[in-house]
Amino acid sequence: MPLELDHEAGIRAAAADGELWNLRITSVPAPDEARGYIDTALKSRDEGHRFAFAVIEEASGVVLGSTSYHDILPDVKRVEIGYTWYAKRVQRTHVNTTCKLLLLTHAFDTLGCNVVGWRTDNFNIASQRAIERLGAKKDGVIRGNVLRRDGTIRDTVMYSLHRGEWPEVRSHLNYLLSRSHGL
Q1: Residue 39 CA: distances (Å) to CA of 2, 3, 78, 85
Q2: Considering the entire predicted model, what is its pTM?
Q3: Over the stretch 6-61, which tens digit does the pLDDT of each residue have?
Q4: Which parts of 17-77 are beta strand (E)?
Q5: What is the DSSP letter of 151?
Q6: Measured at the alpha carbon of residue 85, what is the angle toward residues 152 and 9, in degrees to the nearest 5?
């Protein structure tokens, strides 16, 4: 569901589950920064370069985290998926696989994208493994291109998935979800 101001309390609670804002390699808001996080996402949506979603558990309506399309390039039909984080209690569950299946299906089948990309901190090994489990291919590393919240400069690992690879990846993600809840 599109991220809205109504999700503030849920974003705050999801981020607090595991004190995710203390992780050096992510951009999860501290609970008292939830409103600013949402305001920034909404401004980016208005500017056309990021579209943020609240990840919500369907059965309970509880906010589990957030993810976004970003670096949206309509002329080349490319989006990236990022700004993704989940409450600690749902990390390494079917949640990420389900979200990525939904986002990729929308990107390729509805938006007509040619390429979907991801980027992550070179020290975020868990994120790299998760992206690779999805079937994305590693494009390379951009060295020294982004400041982390602690002021250090990160190297960024880039991944992509092309339209022609999508049918096999879709089958793989559906298989993972049917077999072991996406783990």
Answers
A1: 13, 10, 24, 17
A2: 0.91
A3: 999 999 999 999 888 888 788 899 999 999 999 999 999 999 999 999 999 998 99
A4: 50-56, 63-73
A5: S
A6: 110
